[in-house]
Amino acid sequence: MKNTIKRVPIPFCGVMLGLVALGNLLQSYGEGIRYACGIVAAFILVLVLLKVIMFPQMLKEDMKNPIMASVAGTFPMAVMLLSTYIKPFIGTAAKYIWFFAIGLHAVLIIYFTIKFVLKLQMPKVFASYYIVYVGIVVAAVTAPAFEQLKVGAAAFWFGFATLIALLVLVTVRYVKYPEVPEPAKPLICIYAAPTSLCIAGYVQSVMPKSKNFLLAMFALATVLYIFALVKAIGYLRLQFYPSYAAFTFPFVISAIASKQTAACLANMKQPLPFLQPVILVETIIAAVLVIYTFVRFVGFVFAKNN
Question: What are the residues whose beta carbons fall under 8 Å from the beta carbon of 87, sequence distance 6 or more?
Fold first, then answer.
């Protein structure tokens, strides 16, 4: 068992995040499906916490790596979402867990900025940088559950501002330094996540809403989604790497963004009916990728010979 825990990689948190987000995406198909996703995500949470407790030195070493340190942001993101799952059972305590996760993510932003951004090396910049800065927009997505819209709005605007800056920085990196180590190649699929996450945060926490602003974000998110999906199809042929986690949350949040864009525009009395089949296709793709990636991670972590 000890060796199994030792093999739990930080990117497994990305799969946990993908699962809790998938539960929210599929909630309209049944509350049981949502809680099933939450239970599996909680199982991953236990594994990750055991790794932190039993092998703290490994975590310390991982945090010296810009990829691992940035991917670590999926942990507080997932905890923010999980806090909304457990709110019906533990009440106010869930809010404190939510605030703790936001605080933890803020600490990561400060650490990452000092450790890597202030000493920026362009070849070491990856799409996972989006997780650190734009990832805190999950607070905007979950804020209504705790009646904290001001916190949510602040998180959205911070995330949106950093999204614009990172779109330039990360894109310049991939254009100027196109060579990427094979284990890090799937990370480029994260491109699908930040704009879609901002859409979800905007719809949930920002008032009043602008149709043109929403449509502009959705147009950008759609282009980035198609780009990431094409990349994912190609990189699924690679051997398994923990970076496979990039095949989960980005595609789930894209489907959520499409779903929330359609609902928001309908509330504005300006519906876009053609989005319904798009949402269905994106939901199927997201579910398949999350399940597939979870199975691959379980095979990796619980393999007898690794």
Answer: 94, 95, 145, 146
Q: Report the alpha-carbon distance of residue 253 to residue 82 in Å, rounded.
A: 15
6-40 b/e with 16+ CB inside 10 Å = b?
eebbbbbbbbbbbbbbbbbbbeeeeeebbeebbeb
- pTM of structure: 0.97
| Distance of alpha carbon 108 from alpha carbon 120, whole angstroms | 16
Q: Are 264 and 210 in contact (CB under 8 A)?
A: no
* Preceding amide of 194 cis, omega within 30: no
For residue 16, give the nearest of 306, 220, 301, 305 by alpha carbon.
301
Residue pLDDT, tens place only, 98-111: 999 999 999 999 99
For residue 208, what pLDDT band results from cuts at 50, 70 and 90?
Answer: very high
Question: Which amino acid, residue 23?
Answer: G
Amino acid making up residue 161: A
Quick count: other Cβ atoms within 10 Å of Cβ 111?
Answer: 14
What is the C-alpha to C-alpha distance for residues 77 and 108, in angstroms, rounded to an integer?
11
What's the CA gap between 256 and 262, in Å, rounded? 10
Q: How confident is the model at residue 1 (pLDDT cuts 50, 70, 90)?
A: confident
